[in-house]
UniProtKB/TrEMBL annotation:
It comes from the Bacteria. Coiled coil: none annotated. The keyword Nucleus does not apply. The lineage of its organism: Bacteria, Pseudomonadati, Campylobacterota, Epsilonproteobacteria, Campylobacterales. One of its GO terms (molecular function) is heme binding. This is Sulfite:cytochrome C oxidoreductase subunit B. Keywords: Signal. The keyword Signal applies. It comes from Sulfurimonas lithotrophica. Residues 1-21 form the signal peptide.
Length: 106
C-alpha cells in the first residue's frame, strides 16, 4: 500500500511540475519547411499518410528501397490500422519510391 501511495505521489508531482513553469517573453516555435515533391500518387499519400503524421516523417526516412516503402506502408496498415486500400497502398509505395527512393528494389 505504501508503494502505491509513493508512486501516486511521485506521478502527481511530476504531472503538476510543468504547470508551475514560467517563461518570460514570447516563445518562438521553429518552422521547418519540408520539400514535398508533387507527382503521380501524391493524392494517395495526402489522403492516407498525412492525416496522421507530417511529411517530415516520410522525408526523415531518407532515400530507401521499394521494399522498405512497401514494408513501411504495411506497418501502417497492420500495426496502426491505417485504412489504406490495396490500390492506394501501391500508389503510395510507387510515389515514395519514385520521389524518395534510392533506386534499389531491395
Amino acid at each position: 500500500m505504501k508503494n502505491i501511495l509513493t508512486k501516486t505521489l511521485i506521478t502527481a508531482t511530476l504531472s503538476a511540475a510543468p504547470l508551475l513553469a514560467q517563461v518570460k517573453g514570447d516563445v518562438a516555435v521553429p518552422y521547418i519547411p519540408y520539400e514535398i515533391k508533387m507527382g503521380k500518387g501524391f493524392d494517395a499519400v495526402q489522403a492516407n499518410c498525412l492525416m496522421c503524421h507530417s511529411f517530415g516523417y516520410i522525408i526523415n526516412q531518407g532515400p530507401q528501397s521499394y521494399e522498405f516503402w512497401v514494408k513501411k506502408t504495411q506497418k501502417m496498415i497492420v500495426h496502426f490500422k491505417a485504412p489504406i486500400s490495396k490500390e492506394d497502398a501501391k500508389a503510395v509505395n510507387d510515389y515514395l519510391f519514385e520521389h524518395y527512393g534510392n533506386g534499389k528494389l531491395k
